[in-house]
Write the structure tokens for this entry.
Amino acid sequence: MTSEAEHGVPAAVERSGSTVPETAAETSPDSPWPLHLLSQKLKAHIDRAPAAWVEGQVIELNRRAGMCFITLRDVDSEVSLSLSVFSSVLDRASSPLERGSRVVARLKPDFWLKTGRLSMQTSDIRPVGIGDLLARIERLRQVLAGEGLFSPARKKRLPLLPHRIGLITGRDSDAMKDVMRNAALRWPAVEFEVREVAVQGVNSVAQVTAALAELDRDPEIDVIVIARGGGALEDLLPFSDETLVRAVAAAGTPVVSAIGHEADRPLLDEVADLRASTPTDAAKRVVPDVSEELERIRYARGSLERSIRVLVHRESESLTNLRSRPSLARPEGMIEVREADLERLRSRSLRSTTAVVERDADVVHHLRERVRSLSPQRTLDRGYAVVQLIDGTVVREPGEAHGGAALRIRVAGGQFGAVADGDHDGGAPA
């Protein structure tokens, strides 16, 4: 660190036979610093401060001989600073400075020992043109786009019919009247929660951001509209401020940007969930048209009625067709057909059974006749006789019946007894 002695300030000063304290912390009512020592120390400290480029807006401009005194105000805050500029420096500017001009200046603080005043010496001052402002906005646009703040994927859908709309706009502005009037014409029941703020100047960014945060916290707010009428590029600069743009991107409630006219494109339009070309367009985009909705309802009801009539007519025809079918027109016909089928099958079965029985009866008759033709009775019926001994033995040979043997003769009509005569010549028995 550079010592105070190197800047012409002694480390310790002898005063009336006593030593002055070396640092401010060592001073006391009994051992104070002389005023010139404090001024020297302040000047030495301020002289070490480097020059810096700052940006602001000229609100006062006074020329006095070879000097010019300017009051510069911050573009975003209520902070101002007085500058001292040599006329030669001011004459080097590319265009004459006027009140309201936006400038960048190279400042170096300077402390005057004799008066104890702090002044800002200006070694260079340059007006900020439209091109410079546009270039800054474009650089910020690229940075925010690279972070994905403008991506369509992150944009939220607006509610079909918002219950309450938050409106951030200028105090008693035409933009506020346009939004509220046109929205009420389209949907008379719409409700607004209005926040009137500064929409240009140094306070606009802070007030718009605060109003946005307040409305975003309100659970009854369904959508937020930020509206402002047209204006010069410098007037619309607050709506390209990085702080405001990031606040809109972080909001949980859908945000509609309605800034300026169709040609105006502040960065707020890029990050908002919906961009409206004008405040009037915002009112049209946020709420539906009640007359259009009623017409859609009438059309839907007409379509529904037509569909129902067509359906009823088609189903009626289907019922008529079903009722005209024979099965429904004369349902007993199905039973009669089945009855006829059953009768036919029964007759066929009876005929078939009768034919089988008759055929088999003939077979039995023929078999019985064949059996009868082979029976001993049939042989007897033809005139033959069976000769048996008394013990039942059938006489097959003449020699089996000796003379005088008792015989039993069986003929077709019955049997009778006989006696063998003993003649065995093969003739017929007596």
Residues 1-17 have pLDDT under 50 and may be disordered. Residues 4-131 form a domain with the OB fold (Dihydrolipoamide Acetyltransferase, E2P) fold (CATH 2.40.50.140).
